[in-house]
Amino acid sequence: MTPSPAIGAGQVIGHSVQGRPITAHRIGEGPIKVVLVGDIHGEFEANTHALAEELLAHFQAHPEQVPPNASLWIIPTMNPDGLATGHRWNANDVDLNRNADTDLDGCAGNDWSPDTVGLEGPHPGAGGAYPFSEPEAQAVRDFMDDAWIGVFYHSAAEAIFVDTCQRHLPTARLAQTLSIATGYEVPEEGWTGYRITGEFGDYLTGEGVAAVTVELTDKQDSEFDRNLPGVQALLADMEAIVSTEAREAGADYVWLDESSTGAWHYAENTFLHPLALEVIGDTAYLLDGGRILAQDLLQPDPPQQILTSGDYVDSVRVLEPLDLATSGDSLLVLDRAGDVYRYDPATGSWTVERYDRPARDTSDHYFVALSSDEGTNYLLETSHEQVWRFADGKRGTAWVKLPQARDVDVSAREGNVYVLARQMNNPIASLARYRDTRTVSEFQPAVDLMHPRQVVATDDAVYVLDRAGRRLLALERESGTLLSLYQFTDRREISAIWANPGGADAPSGQRLLLAGRDTLYFYGEPDRTATIEGGPVLEGPQPHDLALLEDLRGLSVPIEGATITKRDFQMPGAPRHYRLGVHEGIDFYEHTVGVQVNRRTPVRAIADGVVVRALVDYEPATAAQVDAWYAKSLDLGYTPPEVLDGYRGMQVWIDHGGGVISRYAHLGSIAEGIVEGAEVTQGQVIATVGNSGTPASVQSETVEVHLHLELWTGECTAVDSQACHFVGQFLRPIEAREWLEKILR
C-alpha cells in the first residue's frame, strides 16, 4: 500500500525500531484526552491506517465536532516500519501491539510470557522481547499516560473487543457506545478474557483508561462511513463514559478543576511526592523527601521545614519519616525504624513517643502506616499482617491479625479501624473495617479498587486514594457505599489527602485538601489561589521523582529468570533491626529465581555502563569485624555509612549514566576483567552470588547466599556521599514495589 500524504505536521511522540517517526495529531484544546490509534501491521490491516487518516482529515476539517472540554488525538499508525514494508510483524517477528505490560493490570491469566518465536534469528534492529521493549510500544504507552479514552483499530473480526479480565465500567460503556453507533457487536467473551495476550486494552484498563479494540473487516476497503459515527458518539458520550462507575453506584462524580478547586503553587522541587498530609488548627503538615514541612493555611508563605532525616529527637537519630497522624493537638511521625515521634506545635518541641530500635537478630517487623484515635494509636505491620495498638508512651502489642496481603494504610475513627491492602501479586485492592478486633462484614465497598495509596476516615465518610493517585473515592463509613468520586479533568496525580475529621475538636474551615507535586489543592475553595516563591527546595535527582523513575524502565533483572521478592522486608526501605538501620536494596534469594542459588549463580549487569568500583581484592569479614560493626551501630543508634559498606561485602558498582548507579553486594566472586573503568553491556556476567559481608558469612559460605542489588540516583560514587539516594527511598512500600516491578524486567 502507498501511504497517503501526511495531513498536517502533527507531534512526533517517538520513533520506530528503524527510526521512523510516530506522529500524533491533535484536534481540540480541552483537558479530556481521547486517542484513536490506527494499529497497522501490514498488508492485511492496511485499512486501519486508511481509516485513521480519513478520520483525521474529517475532524481537521470539522474541529467544531470535538467538544470544548476534549482533545482528540489521532495516531495514523503506531507501526511505521510495518506500514513501509508491508510486513505484518516487526523485525523480530513480534507483534508490536501485543508487546505491552500487563503484569500489573489485575488479570491473573495474562501476565507477560515472552514469545520467543523468531527471536533467535538474524533480525537486525530488533527491540527485544519483554514488555515495552519495543520503542513503538513505549511511545504509545507514554503518550497515553494521561488519556481518558483509547480506541485501537485492528482488522479481521468485525467486532469490538474489551480486552481485559476486569469489569472496568468505563470501558464497558465505551464499547456499548461504539457498538450502538457502528453496528459492531461486543462478544460476550470480552468480559471473560477474549484473547488475553497483553494488548494495550489490558494495560490501559489496568491504568484506569477506558480502552477497546475495534476489529474492522479483513478487507482493504475503507470503513470510514461506519466508524465516523462511532467516534462522534463517543465524543458526545465522553463525560458519561468517564463517570460510569459513579453513575452506576448512584454517586456524585466530581471534576477537580479551576471551577471547584483552588491551588497554591510552590517553587519547583519544594515537594515532589508527599506521602502524608495532616492539619492541626491553621497549619498543614506535609511529609515529602524525608522531611516534615509546616504550611500556614492562612497565609501563602513558603513552608517551614521542622524535621528531616538525620535530625535527632531525644538523642535518637531520625532515619526516615514514613507516615503522619494527629493525636489531639500533637503531630505523630512514624519512622522507618518503627519509632514514633511527637511534635507539639505550641512549643515547637519534639519527643520520642515510641522507641522500637533495640538490636534483635531475629526481628523482622515492618510498620508501614500510623493512625490515631482519641489517644489510642494504631500501627500497620506488613511482615506478619497485623495491626498493632499502643497508648501514648507505650510500645504496644499486636491487636488484630489480617489476611495475607500487601498492607498499604490504616485509618481509625471512633473505634472503627479501616485497613487498606493490595493483593499479593496484582494491584487489585481491598478495604476492610475492624471494630473490637473483629471484621465488620456489613462494610462492603462495591467499587473496584486498584493501585491503592491512602485511606482517611472521618465522621462523614471514608476517603480512599487509589489508581496510583489518579482517583479519590468517598465511601459511606458504615457500609462502604460509594458517595462521591473525584478526579482531575487532565488525570493528574495527587499523592496525599487530608479530610476534615469532624467532631468538636476538628479544625475549622478546610474540608478536603490534596497534595501533588509542588501544589496544595483546596477542594470547594476555587478562589484560593497563589503562587509561592522560595522555601526549602530539594536539590539534585530525587528517588521519589516519578519522572526519574519512569526513565529507569527497561533495566533487566540481575539474575536470569529472577522476579521481585514477595517479601516487603527484602525490599528497599525496610528496617534492619539487627544494625538499627534501613535496607537500601532488593534481595534476590532462591525463592525469587525458582532454582537453587549458590556461589556459582551468575550475576548480570542490569544495563550498559562503566564499572566505577570493583572490590577484586576483598578480604572476607572476620568475627571481630562483624562484632565491631554491631557494637558501633548499637552505640550510635543507627548504621553509619562505613559500617553499612562493610556489611555489603564484595561489591561491584556500575555507572549507567544520567546519575544512575547500580550496586551488586554480598558477591561470591567478581568476573575476570570487571575492574574500575571497564565497560559492560546489559546482561553481561559480572560476578557470582555469595554471602560476603553478612554476619552468617563468618561461619559458612553457604548460609544466607543471595544477591543484594541497589539502584542509586545522584552523586553516588563515594561510600558516604550525602548527595545520592537509593531507589525506593521516600516512597510508600507499595509504591517502591510497583515501580521496581516496572523498572526491572
CATH-defined topology of the largest domain: Neuraminidase
Biggest sheet, in brief?
7 strands, mixed
Q: Mean pLDDT across all residues, rounded?
A: 89
Helix-residue proportion: 10-25%
List keywords for this structure.
745 residues; alpha+beta; Aminopeptidase; Neuraminidase; Glucose Permease (Domain IIA); 7-stranded mixed β-sheet; 7-stranded antiparallel β-sheet; globular
Would you summarize the structure shown here?
The protein has 745 residues and is of the alpha+beta class. The protein has 13 helices and 48 strands.
Can you characterise this structure?
- The protein is α+β, with helices and mostly antiparallel strands.
- It folds into three domains: 11-242, 3-Layer(aba) Sandwich (Aminopeptidase); 252-356 and 365-531, TolB, C-terminal domain (Neuraminidase, 6 Propeller), CATH 2.120.10.30; 549-743, Glucose Permease (Domain IIA) (Distorted Sandwich).
- 16% of the residues lie in helices and 33% in strands.
- The protein has 13 helices and 48 strands.
- The strands form eleven sheets. It has a seven-stranded mixed β-sheet, sandwiched between helices. Strands 39, 41, 42, 43, 45, 47 and 48 form a seven-stranded antiparallel β-sheet that branches.
- A hairpin with a 4-residue loop joins β30 and β31 (471-475).
- α11 runs antiparallel to α12.
- The radius of gyration is 27 Å and the shape is globular.
- The model is unreliable at 1-8, 114-127 and 190-196 (pLDDT under 50).
